[in-house]
Amino acid sequence: MTGSKARFDAIGNLNLRVPRRFELPKDKEGNPLKISEYFGINTFCIEKMEKALSESNYFKLISAIENGKSLSYDVADAVADVVKSWALSKGATHFCHWFQPQTGSTAEKHDAFINIDYRKKALEKFSASQLIQSEPDASSFPSGGMRTTFEARGYTAWDFSSSIFIMEHTNGKTLCIPSVFVSYHGDALDEKSGLLRSTEVLSKKAIELLQLLGDQQVKRVIPTLGIEQEYFLIDRSFFNLRPDLVMTGRTLMGGQSPKGQQLEDHYFGSIPSRVQAFMSEMEYELYKLGVPVKTRHNEVAPSQFETAPIFEEANLAVDHNQLTMEILRKVALRHGLSVLLHEKPFAGINGSGKHNNWSIMSTMNTRSSCFSDGENLLDPGKTPHENLRFLTILLGVLKGVYKHSGLLRASIASAGNDCRLGAHEAPPAIISVFLGDLLSRILNELERGTGTGLSTQVNVLHLGLSQLPQVMKDNTDRNRTSPFAFTGNKFEFRAVGSSASTAFPITVLNSAVADGFSDLIEDLKKRQKDGLVKESDILDVIRGAIAETRSIRFEGNNYSSDWVKEAEKRGLPHLRSTPEALDQLVSPTSCEMLTRLGVFTESELNSRFQVRLERYLKNKIIEMDTLRSMVDTQILPAAYAYWGSLVQGVSAAKSAGFPAPQIERVEKLSDLITLLQTQRKALEDVWNQGESRENERDYAYLLGSLGTRLMEEIRLCCDELECRVSDDYWPLPKYREILFLS
Ligand code: ADP
Ligand code: MG
């Protein structure tokens, strides 16, 4: 009966948990500071640079940032000096280049500022070269075969476009320099290099397109991004008692609790006080790092929550999302909680996504981080010219998504997301675009080129040349089932998994849209006369694009099985599992586009394929191994023990001359135990095939199909046992305990 003791203790200990208090900073009079007073205090942003540097050095730094040039050594030295002074004044003892290898998370190697001079005197030093570049041993980061061990050099280089910051930990502070990570030969080994390249090419193509439409002023176009982060929060003791959560981030088994999310009472409900205490502290930490978190609420599933920031330029938003995930994890621990970022921690209730609200903004300002004068190019305009621009940009996006939907699917593929995509509450594994009723009607009218079109009550289009559509913001309808939905003035890429780095999906999206723009540019150029394109010709190009991209648009319920059939009829890729999806990464179309635009070389792309395939395999193997060990050391022993106690009861009853009511249970239990033993053996056989398989891709396909199915069957058997074995014997915290007790 000892198996369940730890579980009962964990439940009992919940009574001792109280919301953790922490002190918000106060002014001299003891009044709490406003958020604006501590927002960004741990970042060394461009404004602080401006104050600290001489005018000429600041000017040189800015022009290097704006023009993508390298910094001269003397300027870099001056910058390093002011960064060092700031960091030391804040109490930092170490510095590191903070980068994003292809592991999905971040990496850092700390060095102390301390140095010993020739008189053996200790002093703090931080040189230009330490600021600009470092050389971590790259051999332990995934490179997908791009780097052989004898060429293990990798370099990190300061990415000026993101702010330097200080990360605090219990007993110290570290200065972090956001960086890209490249190989000795300059190949991108990380998630950021591609993102930065895609941002550049998107800007270049968008400017070219705008110029053809007559906008000559625009200097830069910036993708903007607001990332909604969903997560689960559970008591740490329950987490620790579940080897599956500890090893894989999700429960590999667990019987459904009678109450799940069916009462719909959690979404936007009042936030539990322990969670509220956690959120306040988490947000405080993020504000100090300059992350503009804005909303917080309960999500649909029990114990599921969301946090979302104010949108920023995509590069910064990606960094800030990484920091958000890290702070979520760290602060949860202080509150005796565990945060689950996995896409599907619990079967039968909603999984978690990371909705990427994406748009593009034009600015006449060259500075990348500044878009106060920016205009959202996906904001339907008020004047005919703005509407024409909006429609052109919209069709550029549609073209990109239409041409590269397989690649977009691949960009969000992971073992975790496979558990979520296609489930009843998550976007399916088919990429389509939702535009909303009004916009759809406008595009349909335009395509047909008929009559005056829509009712005059809504500002609508007469297809005469100077009477362009008065497109209105479409805030009326929402489609939560679409993987890529237009929401008034931005697109929401909802298929990204909650634990993913969004750098790669956004890299792919930026590139696909840049490619869509390229096509439109080509079409418009054919019609250009004396440097001008007539409105009627622009409309023609738009019409052509509407017709071409028709099949990617879907307004209905993406969760329905009819949609799957319909999508297949339309010829849209339906890539159910990661191995299938990953093939799209290296398809001729993807390869041609990404290399032509200069986002990735062919070998960089192949390496991304390889890294993702390997990560998928490793995740699957860890899951299978964890499941096997849980069955062997927890589930079967509990079942045997309970079975044994029943059998004892049966024989005692018989020898006392009574009928044994337990007999039916004993039989059922015997059947389940036998079944589980057989399934467990079958799983091991699949697992062992990895040894003999040369080809990783084949093995991934096997684990994605047969392996996943077997794990599912084992799960069902364990869940059935959970319902039948006495509570006193069951070692694993149950769904009803994990999700409803806090
Ligand atoms: P929803 O539309 O999902 O109800 P919000 O309007 O609050 O929610 O927006 C969700 C996220 O979209 C927020 O992070 C917000 O900052 C972001 N967002 C709003 N406008 C833009 C934009 N132009 N570009 C990128 N993200 C944006
Ligand atoms: Mg949203």
Overview of the molecule:
The protein is an alpha+beta fold. Helices cover 47% and strands 13% of the residues. The protein has 24 helices and 20 strands. Strands 11, 12, 13, 14, 15, 16, 17, 18, 19 and 20 form a 10-stranded mixed β-sheet that branches. Strands 1, 2, 3, 4, 7, 8, 9 and 10 form an 8-stranded mixed β-sheet that branches. A hairpin with a 7-residue loop joins strand 2 and strand 3 (107-108). Helix 4 (55-67) packs across helix 5 (73-89) and helix 16 crosses helix 17 (535-548). The protein is globular, with a radius of gyration of 28 Å. It starts with a helix and ends with a helix. The model is unreliable at 451-465 (pLDDT under 50). Bound molecules: adenosine-5'-diphosphate (ADP) and magnesium ion. Residues 228, 355, 492 line the site of magnesium ion (MG).
Q: Tell me the CATH topology of the largest domain.
A: Creatine Kinase, Chain A, domain 2
Which assembly state applies to the chains in this document? single chain
- Named at the architecture level, the CATH assignment of the largest domain is 2-Layer Sandwich
- Overall radius of gyration: 28 Å
Total number of beta strands: 20
Report how far the terminal alpha carbons are from each other: 25 Å
Query: Per DSSP, what share of the residues sits in E-state strands of 2 or more residues?
Result: 5-15%
The gist of it:
This protein is an alpha+beta fold and 742 residues long. The protein folds into 3 domains: 39-187, Ubiquitin-like (UB roll); 197-615, Glutamine synthetase/guanido kinase, catalytic domain (Creatine Kinase, Chain A, domain 2, 2-Layer Sandwich); 616-738, Four Helix Bundle (Hemerythrin (Met), subunit A) (Up-down Bundle). The protein is globular, with a radius of gyration of 28 Å.
